[in-house]
Amino acid sequence: MSEFPKTERNQVRRVAKRGKYDRKTIYKILDAGYLCHVGFAVDQQPFVIPTLYARIEDSIIVHGSSISRMLKNLEKGVRVCVTVTLVDGIVLARSAFHHSMNYRSVCVFGTGRLVEDQGEKIDALKAVSDNLLENRWEDSRPPNQKELNVTSVIKIDIEEASAKIREGDPIDDASDYELPIWAGVLPIITEFGEPQADSKLSSDIDLPEYLER
Amino acid sequence: MSEFPKTERNQVRRVAKRGKYDRKTIYKILDAGYLCHVGFAVDQQPFVIPTLYARIEDSIIVHGSSISRMLKNLEKGVRVCVTVTLVDGIVLARSAFHHSMNYRSVCVFGTGRLVEDQGEKIDALKAVSDNLLENRWEDSRPPNQKELNVTSVIKIDIEEASAKIREGDPIDDASDYELPIWAGVLPIITEFGEPQADSKLSSDIDLPEYLER
Known about the structure:
2 copies of one chain form a homodimer. In chain A, 17% of the residues lie in helices and 39% in strands. The first copy, chain A, is α+β, with helices and mostly antiparallel strands. In chain A, strands 1, 2, 3, 4, 5, 6, 7, 8 and 9 form a 9-stranded antiparallel sheet that branches. In chain A, β6 and β7 form a beta hairpin. β10 of chain A pairs antiparallel with β9 of chain B.
């Protein structure tokens, strides 16, 4: 587990101490998320598209319909920035100025390539599914050839990346600690709710074990 | 409340029926979120940065340290794509192929300008604070001149926008409904946890009412 190089592109400049460049920290965040925002530019016009992803070793997998703008651009090998943001809480300082968020985020820089090998493609699709919900891939009807043909899978090799993390209490100016203002962290929690059966689900099909939690 | 024009840039092409262009739908999603991902490109290199925001009428407000790369680029008036994504659940279809997410997302296209008027700047900062947590602005020590000087506020006029929404049950191929596979929606719920007091908080300061819920 080594460090990604710190370059003009990936360097965290604002509150530099929050910047991390080691694979361990970066991959832990990437592996904790499931939704990324993919940025690419077409003639200086940026687009930012939310999509599911998975990490496989030193690359990020995204997929979608072969005719989507994002996939069509990514398979051309345009430069990509993939950002994953996990929000942990609102940091309530005594001063408006020192309000902040507790979060873990990663920016990945690289370029994509279309995954053409059929086996590699299926492995990549399974990785995205597993990253969202373990065990579901095995419990679904696998993709057939027609479905695979209209799906593009893109592998983005991680050329550079950086993580930015903020955690813990607010940091106020020394003189503000005397103010009669409540300060602390309001946690933001994301969790699964109760599974809701499809209205067309046959009544003899039980909820699978991996959804019982 | 009218429609944004449907152009090459903002048109939802994949599953076009999920695309919405009316201000009412788009603003409802923007007003329900607090975190956006701002995309901009520098010499074809895209950057995607997570940040807080607020909507004021037909514009999006973002702010940050004047020396941040994002703010410095945005104040130059580069083209921007601001994306807000609210995830509501995982759509578990019988086929791997028809798995999806329930979500509400908006892409806004425009260019930013630096807010220089002091009154407008404070109103904009308050709007971002209110959008994150109502009542907190009034309960904080307001920004002083030194703090305002090192903060940049950018107003991005919404030139074009589109929303994309998916909701409800999975849609499977007709022949797949007979498969003995559980299908439905696994909701994803985001909520506030129990407020955690700053370790340096004086014990005589009570939790304010707006945090008691």
